[in-house]
Amino acid sequence: MTLTCDKYEWDKHEEEKHNRRRKRIKLVDRRGGPSTYYGENSNGREFITIVVDGGVIRKGTAESRCDYLLLDVERKFARLIELKGSDYGDGYRQLADSYKKFKSTLIKNGYRKIEGRLVCTSISVPNHHNTPEHKKIAEDIFKECKLFIRCVGGARMFEDLDTGIIRK
Q1: 4-38 pLDDT per residue, tens
Q2: Sign of the dihedral defined by the CA atoms of residues 78, 28, 97, 150, in that order
Q3: Phi, psi of 11 (to 5 degrees)
Q4: Which of 24, 116, 132, 160 has the smallest count of CB within 10 Å of its CB?
Q5: What φ, ψ does residue 141 adopt, rounded to 5°?
């Protein structure tokens, strides 16, 4: 399975190409931060992991971008993943900008469901989601590009890739 796109070289930036059906997908902050995303793949479906920041979009460019793109090949479900330290507003923006960049390519390749995942180490999400600032950012992003983003505070996000249930 390859993604067809004239602008980006997707295949050159795939992680664990030899192990697409792994049971646990672990995505770490490539800059050494503590944020980590774990995807539990108990059914062994095929997932493609694309490095976006420093991969598909090279370092040193001014383009805003997320860290990873995780593709569920069988269900045609794309997850844009951002691993953040403290600036959750910037994290939301990076996910929205990545969505706008990649949406047409993903749709052209059959991906109909696209969502964002934000792991932000320095916020307390249960309290954070109730703040007017957070609600405004999330609403603005959704109005702008219809991207649904799920956010978790703390250093880790665990997602069951079959059910979509997220825990810390």
Answers
A1: 555 667 778 888 777 899 999 999 998 888 889 99
A2: positive
A3: -60, -30
A4: 132
A5: -65, -45
Residue 123 is predicted with a pLDDT of 65
Find the angle CA(106)-CA(108)-CA(111) to the nearest 5 degrees. Answer: 45
Kindly state the tokens that stand for 148: 């649904």
What strands, in cross-sheet order, belong to the sheet with 24-28? 24-28, 36-40, 156-160, 166-167
Tokens of 46: 């095929």
> Could you tell me the residue ranges of all domains in the chain?
13-167
Task: Quickly count: other Cβ atoms within 10 Å of residue 73's Cβ.
Answer: 15
Look up the pTM and report it: 0.87
Residue-wise pLDDT for 32-88, tens only, equals: 888 899 999 999 999 999 999 988 888 777 789 999 999 999 999 999 999 987 778
Q: What is the C-alpha separation between 153 and 26, in angstroms, rounded?
A: 17
Place of tokens 């249960």: 126
Residue positions counted in the chain: 168
- How many alpha carbons fall within 13 Å on the CB side of residue 45? 19
As a whole number of angstroms, the distance between CA 167 and CA 152 comes to: 8
